[in-house]
Structure formats: C-alpha cells, structure tokens
Amino acid sequence: MKKSISVIIPCYNMEQYIERCYNSLATQTDASDIEIIFVNDGSTDNTLEYLHKYQTIDKRVIVVDQENAGVSAARNAALDIMSGDYFFLLDSDDYLPDNSISAIKKIICEYDPDIIMPAYNNSINGKESLVELPIKEGIYDKNTFFKIVRHFPTIPQLVYRNMSQNHRVRFDPNVRCGEVYTYTVSFLRHAKSIYVLNEACYNYFQRQDSATHKPNYANDLTVIDALESIYCHGSDLCHHGSFIVTAFKIAMSFTYNKYLRFPYNSDAISAIERLLNAPIIKKNIKEVLFGSHMSIRDRCLACYIYMMPTRLGFRLLNKCFSKS
User: Fold this and answer.
1) Who's near 167: CB < 8 A, 6+ residues apart?
2) Measuring CA to CA, how many Å separate 24 from each of 7, 36, 182, 314, 320?
3) pTM of the predicted structure, to 2 decimals
4) Cα(197)–Cα(104) distance, rounded to whole angstroms?
5) Are strands 86-89 and 115-124 parallel, antiparallel or unpaired?
6) 86 within 8 A of 164, measured Cβ to Cβ
C-alpha cells in the first residue's frame, strides 16, 4: 500500500532562505502527493508573505500562522494537523538534495521501517560535503542499532512513521537545545525498526548567525532539561555507549564548547558552572570517563572536565582557544 509523506517546516524570520527551501521541495521527483506544512512562528519580516505565495501556487502547501512560541511549539502545531503516514522535519534554512523524496519512498515501500536515518550533506560557503552515518546501510532493530552505532545523529534529517493514532509523542517546548534528539528518544520507546540510508537526503546549511553558534544562556541551559528527559524516556537505551556519547556531545556542544568562541565573561562562567554542577551532567560525564568502550578523545575531554575546577578550567580553555 502506498504511503504518504508530510514535510514539517517551522519558520521564524527566514525570508532570506525560505525560497531555496521551498524550491528544493518543488523540484523533487515523485513528490506530487506530499504534504508541505509551513508553520510561521510569529515572523516579523516577510516570511509569511512568501508562505502565502507558495500556498497560492502549490496545492500541497499548508500554512499555519501562530504567535512566536519557539521551534518545538511550531513543530507540534504541524504534528497536530498532518495527514501523512510518515513525516520529516526540515528547517527553513536547510534544503533537500534532488530525488530525496523518491529515495525515501523507495525505502518505505520496501522495508516499512519506523524510522529512516539518511546521510546528509554539510553545506558550508556554497560547498556540500557528504556526512555518512557511522553504520552500514540496512534495516536494524532498535537495540541492535544502538549496540553497533557509536553516536546518534541529532540534526533533523530523520524520517518518522506517523504513530499518532496509538502514541502521542510531542516536542517539549521548554527544551531549546537538543530538542530533536529528545523527541527522537521519546519516539524510540514505541519504535522497533530503523533503516540506515547512506545516501544524502538532507542539506544542512551551517550559518554563523544561527542559534547553534551563538550563546543564549537561558536557552542553552535547557540542555539540562533535555538530558533529564532523555534519561527518563530512554531508560531501555541508556546503557548503550552510543546513547551516552550522544548525550555527552549534546551537552558539550550547546554549552561548554560554544562559549569558547566568544570573549570570556561572568555570564559564560556562571552558565558553565550551572551545567557542570547539574547531577544529570555529572552522571553523564562519569559514564563517558569510566566507560572502557568510549573513544580516547571523548574520555580525555570528560577527564579534563571532571578533574579541573570549573573556573580555572574554563579560563585555561578560553586562553588556549584564543591562541589557536
């Protein structure tokens, strides 16, 4: 039986990038039956005008307009109205390679998995480079996958089965960092099969002015809530090394490492101290440090963070980074 696909695209002040995003969908092959849901999350630029234009010329487009509530709330609004048998999340500054939809449909038709995990392209300064997944292509049950893979992809290129009739899995609006991974872990409680596809079906556009690269202390510290949610909802997965490493990388990338890019200040120090004093973060660091199956690089970083007093450690790292 043929399965339909919904594409969920939250938008906030994306007039500079939204045309490229939409065009990458408009030119897909075998995509006449997809559902394209744009959620305008209180944009103050001309984003909504673009979306209404697409809705006028393309019957597949649905536009939801809401007051600004954050990307998680925007995705939830789309999840509440989508009709597809499968869905995937597309950020409005990212875009799809040619034939992504047809490749995804082929996997759905042949294997009917609960999650499809494609490779993706990093797009930096107009150049695209393939990022393959650290696992051989094929179909896996959930536990086998976590035993084999070293870390779990956390950018929103995954394709999910619509399980809304039996399970209501939603994004937590209070989590602003690691929200996709947190959602995926909750989803995995109900999933059985994962298909790994080492063909790029997503172009991840890295821009320096994105939230991923800029400190936002209040938002960044919600990574603590994310990890607490992950450990709560992923209890059957938490013993796998790949799960522990991914949680560690999320915490470090959204806080500790990010702040080294910016001038030393008391707000950054306070944020780092709150992060490293959180019980769930301490637990995660110890798991990486004392896990014999972890990589030397991850264990060394965990050892440094674990052993060095926070203020002194941050100052030294900041000093070293400034010289590099």
Assistant:
1) 190
2) 12, 12, 27, 42, 41
3) 0.81
4) 9
5) unpaired
6) no
Phi, psi dihedral angles at 302 (to 5 degrees):
-65, -40
How far is CA 35 from each of CA 142, 152, 161, 213, rounded to the nearest angstrom? 28, 27, 14, 31
3-state class (DSSP) for residue 193 = strand
Read off the amino acid at residue 229. Answer: S
Q: What is the per-residue DSSP string for 31-65?
A: -TT-EEEEEEES-SSSHHHHHHHHHHH-TTEEEEE
How far, in Å, CA of 178 to CA of 279, rounded?
A: 18
Residue labelled with tokens 């809401």:
66
Residue-wise pLDDT tens digits, 256-308: 555 655 555 667 777 777 777 778 778 888 888 887 677 788 888 788 777 65
Other Cβ atoms closer than 10 A to 216: 14
N-to-C CA span, the chain:
56
Q: Which helix (H) or strand (E) holds 115?
A: strand 115-124
The size of the chain, in residues, is 324
Tell me which residue has tokens 């619509």: 162
Distance in angstroms (rounded) separating the CA atoms of residues 263 and 133 = 34
